[in-house]
Design goal:
Blueprint lengths: L1 H28 L11 E5 L13 E5 L10 H16 L2 E5 L7 H10 L4 E5 L4 H10 L5 E4 L8 E6 L1 H15 L4 E6 L4 H17 L4 E6 L6 H13 L4 E5 L3 H14 L6 E6 L3 H4 L4 E7 L1 H14 L6 E5 L6 E2 L10 H15 L9
Helix pairs in contact: 2-10, 3-4, 5-6, 5-11, 7-8
Length: 359
């Protein structure tokens, strides 16, 4: 009898240990991301949610342009919006990064054919591919940033980049010590043109003696090209550069930081799309022209979660909508007097006294 009890106690202890081990494995698996690599695929962030987190059957996919989801700018802002929605609503999200224009259509189709409830195209360049996919799949929900796609199942969101760029042009025009400032665009397109002309108009409004020197990189994913173009502009006496070029603009920051660290004449960069001082620091970021891509992506995606998505409409986010503007961190480097002047121009743009050119 004693032998039987001893054996039973050993078995009970072993089972308890096994069950405890199984419980720990389940808890750990809840924190593991199921990544996907190879080809054009981005990283899947469809990890199992914690037991007390909200869960949803909605799946949302995002296709980036060639700048990639870690561009510290445009695409990254869109992806961060979906990550926030995953936390808040429990939706399943995934992105696919495009390595060339040829990837746009197959990447969009991968989500549509995979039964995703909403498929995003991020960037003007995806417009034609998204229109084709939308027409071929009329029951699919799609959305796009920075392009207007005329289809009943597509929600289009654009921004008044010229208005926000006018304001950072005011900052540049009143801050420059050389009366030379530069603009570096990515690819030439109506969107980047709005950045360019708005910036130039803002500089000229407050400093007619200043020259705005404009160049284009021809790419959104070439930091080395951005660094080289920035070096040329800084060498020519431009002490502030505003890049609207996605990841290419990261090279502008790198060049500016190198020059400032070397102890030469102070140079600045104006960030774009996100508050880039959070990434590159106040030492080099004069201010940023924030474009609320994150809010736009989150707003439309929430419609799918709520069952209110309709498609077939276009939303234009302006200064009045807080869709573009300057971050609070501008106070680190921009004087109170200049910020007051920015606020004056902002109100004049909102009330229609000033109409900022867009092309």
């Amino acid at each position: 009898m004693k032998k039987f009890l001893k054996t039973s106690l050993v078995m009970l202890t072993a089972c308890t240990a096994i069950l405890a081990g199984c419980g720990n494995n389940n808890a750990n698996s809840g924190n593991a991301a199921n990544g996907e690599t190879g080809g054009n695929a981005g990283t899947a962030t469809n990890a199992p949610a914690a037991t007390d987190a909200p869960k949803s059957d909605v799946k949302i996919g995002l296709v980036t342009d060639v700048g990639g989801v870690n561009d510290k700018s445009f695409n990254q802002s869109a992806w961060e919006a979906l990550e926030a929605l995953k936390t808040e609503a429990g939706v399943e999200i995934k992105y696919l990064q495009s390595n060339s224009n040829a990837d746009y259509e197959p990447n969009l189709n991968q989500f549509v054919k995979g039964g995703y409830n909403l498929t995003w195209g991020i960037g003007f360049d995806l417009g034609d591919a998204l229109l084709k996919v939308a027409k071929e799949n009329p029951d699919a929900n799609l959305a796009i940033i920075d392009s207007v796609v005329d289809a009943p199942n597509v929600e289009s969101v654009t921004f008044a980049e010229n208005e926000g760029s006018f304001l950072v042009g005011v900052v540049a025009g009143l801050t420059t010590k050389t009366n030379k400032v530069g603009f570096i665009g990515g690819m030439e397109s109506p969107v980047i043109k709005r950045f360019e002309v708005g910036f130039k108009a803002g500089v000229e409004a407050v400093n007619p003696d200043a020259t705005v020197n404009i160049t284009y990189a021809g790419a959104y994913d070439k930091p080395d090209t951005g660094k080289s173009l920035a070096a040329t502009l800084y060498n020519a006496g431009n002490d502030i550069i505003f890049p609207a070029a996605g990841a290419t603009g990261n090279g502008v920051f790198n060049e500016a930081k190198s020059r400032n660290d070397a102890g030469g004449d102070k140079v600045w960069v104006i960030g774009v799309d996100k508050d880039q001082s959070l990434e590159f620091g106040d030492e080099v970021t004069l201010t940023s022209m924030i474009k609320r891509v994150d809010e736009a992506v989150k707003r439309v995606s929430q419609q799918v979660v709520d069952g209110t998505f309709k498609g077939g409409t276009t939303t234009v986010l302006t200064l009045k909508d807080n869709g573009v503007g300057l971050p609070e961190t501008s106070k680190a480097n921009v004087s109170a007097e200049i910020l007051a002047k920015v606020e004056e121009y902002k109100q004049q743009i909102i009330d229609g006294t000033i109409v900022v050119p867009g092309e």
